[in-house]
Amino acid sequence: MVAHRSAKYFIPMLHTRLTYSRPVFAISRQYTTTKTTIFREIPEDAPLRDVRENLRQLGGGSVELTMNHRTSIAYILLNNPSKKNSFSGKMMAELADIVDALEKHVCDSEGVDGTTPEGVKAVVKTKEQEDIRGVILHGASETFCAGFDLSVARSHMLSKAGGQQMSRLMHNTFTRFHNLPLVSVAAVEGYAIGGGAEATTACDFRVLHRDALVRFVHANMGIVPGWGGANRLTRLVGRRNALRLLGTTEILSAEQALEIGFADEIASEDESALASSEIFLSRFIFEDPESALPYLKQHSSGGLNSTTEDASSPPPPMHAPESLRGLKQCVIATDLEGAKGLAEERRVFVSLWGGPANLAAVSRPPSKSKHRKK
């Protein structure tokens, strides 16, 4: 899989015209203080802005947004290879920042709690910015995501307050991401474990590499999904399959995922899941996806084989963005009752987080906890 270019731009530069296929929202805030990181147990009803900033100081890694306005596809990269792209608190905050930015771009709305990331208000919206139609969530270094970084959990977040803050922010972030008026695809390479498996359910579709493995390991950790994954999984695969996957923590292969309706497509042998996801999204973007394939390959940000087509050639006819976004909003409207189920899922998660079973699981060596194979 070919990763995106990793050049990072500070947010104040967003007032300039956005260029093609380059990271435009790669959060990389540096903390130069020498003070010990302190995770504050803030009130349960504290503004999500405060929860986000409290988590931002925990751990490393990054989450990066790239917008390719030639193909109308945005890319969100989970970038923490040394931890199998596990989410740190910092990455959770950055993903929330990116969802804010996407809401601002495609909805012209403010982020959670009426705030926007620093500098986003300075963006001058252009036709190119308004034309983004799809988004791909993927991981660096040929793996998707191994869930929550357990080293961060052990160091800072095994209290009930820590679990409540994390769950509250991630529920909000993934729900807002799921409800974006964009068609979203999870491009799954390698492992999608625990919270990583939950993240795939926040997307409209899932394209898996043929060697990809998905596993909901929460029961082994003495908890239930805390980011909305149980609710969304049940809607995807039905009650019986969801209960089996969650209760037995069985490993789901790409073929099995396709068979039960979890996966929508398996990448071909000579393509990465990211490249296949671009082709998958092209069906929603271009009026004639087959004839648009050479253009898509020429301007790909995801590793599709390039062609000799003139880079200055005009794009093939595309579906109107307002039509596609309107269709997504109609589908979202059918999920309104799901909010009650998400609230109950978060309540149960918080009641179990930091409990005896969870503490025992987190204290085990990595080979004997969530990463062990059956």
TrEMBL record:
Gene3D superfamilies: 2-enoyl-CoA Hydratase, Chain A, domain 1
Keywords: Cytoplasm, Lyase
GO BP, sorted A to Z: fatty acid beta-oxidation
UniProt cross-references to CDD domains, sorted A to Z: crotonase-like (cd06558)
Single GO term (MF): methyl/ethyl malonyl-CoA decarboxylase activity
EC number in record: 4.1.1.94
TM spans (from-to): none
Main location: cytoplasm
Polar residues composition-biased segments: 298-311
Domain of life from the UniProt record: Eukaryota
Localisation per UniProt entry: Cytoplasm, Cytosol
One GO location term (cellular component): cytosol
InterPro entries, alphabetized: ClpP/crotonase-like_dom_sf, Enoyl-CoA_hyd/isom_CS, Enoyl-CoA_hydra/iso
The reaction(s) this protein catalyses: (2S)-ethylmalonyl-CoA + H(+) = butanoyl-CoA + CO2; (S)-methylmalonyl-CoA + H(+) = propanoyl-CoA + CO2; (2R)-ethylmalonyl-CoA + H(+) = butanoyl-CoA + CO2
Annotated region described as Disordered, given as residue ranges: 297-322
Pfam families assigned: ECH_1
Main function: Decarboxylates ethylmalonyl-CoA, a potentially toxic metabolite, to form butyryl-CoA, suggesting it might be involved in metabolite proofreading. Acts preferentially on (S)-ethylmalonyl-CoA but also has some activity on the (R)-isomer. Also has methylmalonyl-CoA decarboxylase activity at lower level.
Family, similarity comment: Belongs to the enoyl-CoA hydratase/isomerase family.
Protein name: Ethylmalonyl-CoA decarboxylase
Annotated source species: Gonapodya prolifera (strain JEL478)
